[in-house]
Every structure is written in C-alpha cells, then in structure tokens.
Amino acid sequence: MHNSRRMLVWLKRIALALLLIVVLVFALIGLLTVTRGTPVEYVLAKGDPRGPPATDDPLFRRTIELNTGVDLEAGNAVQVLENGVGTYPLLWQDIRTCRQTVTVQMYFAKPGAVADTMGAVLRECAKRGVRVLLLLDGFGAQSLTKEWRASLTAAGVEVAYLRQLRWYTLHMATERSHARVIVVDGRVAYTGGFGLADYWLGSGHKPDEWRETNVRFEGPAVAELQAAFAVAWAEATGELLTGDAFYPPVSFDTAGTVRAGLFHAVPSTGSTPAERFYALTIAGARKTLYITNAYFVPDDDFRNLLKAAAKRGVDVRILTTGPNTDVRSTLWAGQWRYPELLRAGVRIYEYQPANMHAKTLSADGVWGSVGSMNFDNRSLAFNNETTLLIYDRRIVAGMDTMFLNDLKASKEMTLAEVRRWPWWRRARSAMADMLERLL
C-alpha cells in the first residue's frame, strides 16, 4: 500500500515535470516566433563584376519582380499626394463617384472628423445600392465606438475586423494588418501611410499634425491592390471576392504611362519579399538613395547594406521623425544606430515641425515607392503592408523634390552632436535597441 502511494506521488511528479517541459517548449516557440527576424545579409551578383543590377538596368526591374512577386506594368496614372490636405478632399470626391463597389482597409482609426467624414461618405454610397466593404485591424481600430460602426451597418456597409485580439489568437498578436487600401469600382485606388484619424488633417507643419505621403493611382496596379484587400477580407469573413464589380474587364491603356506595381507584403518566416525589396534597392542604388521613414530601425544586415552603399559613393540620406514622434521607443532605438551609420557617410535627418509618418523611398531618380511599409522588423517580418513601386523618372523626380523640401524643415544629425549626448540618453537608446525585433 505504502509503495503504491509512493509510486503515485512519483508519477504525479513526472507528469507535472513533463507538463512543465511542454509549456516551456511552447513558450520558447512563441518567444522565437514573436521575435523572429529576416536572414538576408548581402546581395550577390555571381559572375558579374559590376555587382548587383543597378536601378536603371532592365535586369533590376526583372529581379525585383522575381523576388517580390510584383508585376511592374506600364499604363498607370500615378499622383503622389502630400499630407491630409492633399489627400482627403480628392479621396472623398473619388468615393462619392462610386457606382458598384467600394473597398476600404485601414490599420489605424479613432473617433474624430476624419472617421466621421469617411463614415458619412460610405453611408451615402451604401444607400445608393453600392456594395461597400470596410475592413479594420483588430488592434489599430479598437478605439472606434460601437455607435459609429452601428451607423454604418444600418446603412448597409459591411464592416469586418481582422485579427481581433482574443485568447485563441494570441499566436497572431504581433501580426497586424498594417495595409492601407481604398479602391473605388476597381478603377481608382489609394494607399500610403494615412488612416482614419485627425492626426492626418493639415499640412504636416504643426506639432499636432502628421507629415504624410500617400498615392492615388489608376491602371493595372489597381487590380493588385484590390487583390490585397480580397486576401484580407477572405481571412476576416471567409468570403473570397471575385467578379467584374471588383475587377472590371476594362483596358487601362489610356490611364497613364507610368510603370508601377502594387507590392503586397504578408507575414512569413525566413526571407520575406519585404526584406528582398529593400535589399535589392539598396544594393542597386548607384547615385542617390533617399529614404523617408517614421520608424527607422534597420538591423545589423541592413545597416551593413546602407554603409556599403555610402562607401561606394551613393548619396544615402535618411529622413525620419524627430521630437514629435508618436512612438518614442522606436525613435530611441533608431538613434542607437546613428553613430555607426554617420561614420560610414550616411546622412541622417530628423523632421522638426511635426511627426514625420511618411514611408517613401527613391533611388537614382528612377525607382521609388510610396506606401505603408516601415523600415523596421515589424514591417519586414510581421505585418501585412501595401506599397506602390514606381519605375518612372518623372514621378520619382517629384518625390525627390518633396524629399529635399522636407530636409529644409529637418535637423541634420552629426557625429559630433551624437557623441555629446549625455550618458542617460545613450543608455536609453541602448535599452530600446534590445527590443528591436518587437518594434
């Protein structure tokens, strides 16, 4: 009897130990999952003494297409839009012209004038019999009121949430839908860094305003943005959208002359299309590389790529946010990288009047991008992102002008100044850097 009890006690202990081991293993798997990075270290051009293809080389375009899955097609009309004042009036006008479908996907939304106007415009369309679909991220839009949503559904707008935070979705908690999608009748599209919040009202020159860059386009790339929405809508609702109402069978030959493609980045393990886009662009730059990004936290490998570009004579300039940032820990982590990059010849600027929230890139006056994708591990490994890739000298020249104008309102960081930072500021940046995989 006594031996039986001892055996039972030992069996319970063994079972408890095994359970603890299983819990620890799953906890480790979870930790590794939410802190995963991306593996590309360098770009190799085997057998080509010139190195990776330059941005103005036709091989560069083909390489981008193969490594990102984007079709860079001609026939697009593209307008790069600056700030809310350059975006919302045109956006409301386009949505009001809807006849069949309006699809909207937003990451960030909160109560205010912008959300109210969007709600009113969508209700107008739905009441006319237009099918209106609104998809919101379960984290970024959680502050919207039930009354706001109810007013939309009562008018016939179909509202869904993607990846809402529940105990059974914790494994996806870090994988957010950071995409911005607006498509009207499958013909006119918008993406960028904007959202449904009053931060984006104004011209981006006051502390309570956000400096933003968005893009409006027509042509073949519209269907690619619509497809990005369809993927997310299917995940949220189980309904996969097809048909002429969403993908109209029309010729876009007269829409424009710009070669462009919509890049829809999705979460994955291992090498991601997002990191390959950045790596190929940095390696392909020969004269200029202008990066505007609100959340600039490049890992070791991307810092090496940026330094290599500067050392081979490329004018590498980084424009990021400054004292008006909305995420201080990300700014601090980015500042930890300044000395290393500055020593290599990379020039870094912090925007002063407002929170710089734009996500743009241009290289050599011919290759550019405007979208939602940040230069951090979250965008490279975890988020759904939408970015228009543009291969056109006229459009990119305009982007370069916008970039250089922003520099006039920015502070250039110098190695001498960074070295004078007090110890507590450097310590703060070092601690923020420890969280780089989560930022």
TrEMBL record:
Pfam families: PLDc_2. One of its GO terms (molecular function) is cardiolipin synthase activity. GO terms for biological process: cardiolipin biosynthetic process. Residues 173-200, 352-379 form the PLD phosphodiesterase domain. GO terms for cellular component: membrane. It comes from the Bacteria. InterPro entries: PLD-like_dom (IPR025202), PLipase_D/transphosphatidylase (IPR001736). This is Phospholipase D-like domain protein.
